[in-house]
Amino acid sequence: MTAHRSTLRRASAVTAAAIAALVLAACGSSDTGTSSSGKTTPPASASASTGAHNAADVSFATQMIQHHRQAIAMADLAGTRAAGSDVKTLATKIKNAQDPEITTMSGWLKTWGEKVPDNMGGMDHGNASPMPGMMTTQQMDDLKNASGKAFDTAFLTMMVGHHQGAIEMAKTEQSKGAYGPAKTLADDVITAQSAEITQMNKMLGTS
Fold first, then answer.
1. Which of 49, 97, 128, 156 is most buried per CB count within 10 Å?
2. If phi over 0 gives left and psi between -120 and 50 gives alpha, with beta otherwise, what is residue 122?
3. DSSP code, position 114
4. Which residues, listed in sequence order, are joined to residue 34 by a DSSP beta bridge?
5. In the structure, what pLDDT confidence band is assigned to residue 63 with cuts at 50, 70 and 90?
6. How many Å apart are CA 185 and CA 205, to the nearest integer?
């Protein structure tokens, strides 16, 4: 009987040791991030690279800043030249939306060690602007010289084209950019400016 009890005690001890080893192994696996395949996996936060950017992001921010500046220059003219209150309201809405976006994109460029483009007063570089939808110097001069209903028509027509150019640039950022916040801003530009194009076409009576 004594020998039998001793054998049972030894068996119980071996079983308890095996269970303890399994528990320790499970804890060790959880703490070190070891997967079932034996490979160490990094935490989810370590795999995120929200700060990564590429040349397309730099181009988007640099060009959209200039694009926005020209839209704001056009909107500023509406305050004293537009005849319709709806045109003035739209111009204010455009300025209030795009001004903060300029600040945001300028911050990105500074963080990336890139140059923030000089403020050219909303003007392009002659007739050879690489940015779609940009008005030429002559077009901007014509808008400055217009007033009343003639201004309203010119402003809305030009701003539709300007917005279409911005949407084209934003789509390029969507497909080629890498920086998350820039791609999100591109989405916002497409959504907001598409809606404004629809609104402006109704105001022009073309839709």
1. 156
2. left
3. P
4. 40
5. very high
6. 30
